[in-house]
Amino acid sequence: MTLQTLAFKRPATYQDVLDAPAHLVAELLDGALHLQPRPGARHARAASRLGVKLGGFDDDGPGGWWLLDEPEIHLGDHVLVPDLAGWRRANMPAFPDAPAIDLAPDWICEVLSPSTRRLDLGVKRDVYGAHGVSHLWFVDPDAQTLEAFACRGGAWVLLATLTGDAMVRLAPFEEAIFSLSALWPPSKPEPPQSEDI
């Protein structure tokens, strides 16, 4: 299944998000309901491994962060579910006890997949910038890349594009240093070669 954008005779509402099938991720952008399947295994691994690599920041580590996997975020009339999001504790001192968060994160990471690429790189990026997200990362498991952006003067500025086994040391998590290759599944080992006797 691929991304579906449902057109209504009226703008979609949060009730449409709540009524969406439980096995789909539902997002509301510019009055349109977007439904996509749960992430595939490569996508999920990249997000999980990145969360592990940055986990120290969530444990009262450098900078003091709240980091969440797939939080529901309400920004104006938009309902978004990024793969990872982080809030500086200075900006969100108390952890919310609610099903959704209406404060823009300081950092978001979207893991790109064929079904979500256009939405992530298009309208979602625009919404994040318009609502004050400072840092945005795009991780692409197929291309094995990471692109990091900072929002400056309302525009996204590319900070770095990393590929291969480049070392990751990027804002706002400069203290986290790890190989980009740690996000991908290990290569399949070569089958043993039979030896002729």
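That was protein one. Protein two is written in the same sequence-then-structure order:
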Amino acid sequence: MGFFDSEIVQQEAKQLFEDYQALIKLGQNYGKFDREGKKMFIEQMEALMERYRIFMKRFELSEDFMAQMTAQQLQTQLGQFGMTPQQMFDQMNLTLERMKAEVDKQP
């Protein structure tokens, strides 16, 4: 069975995408959130990024040709911006850390 033939992989990919879309939509109102709402949003983004990082690691570790191609495509796309997948995750984490610091400054 191929990597993408797995019902578990398909479901996780679908759930990641839906959760990401929902958080992005919710994040449009981030400036209106109170302090606790901002903290909750950041925690949810951190959890989503961790799930995404693990999902991408599965691609890298898989011996399936299509999974390897997908991982390579991501590297190529990010490379066009002068970035590696690890740098992408590091940048996302840095952004979330900055957001946390801002929230901590609020009364």
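Residues 35-61 form the longest helix (27 residues). Keep this in mind for the problem set.
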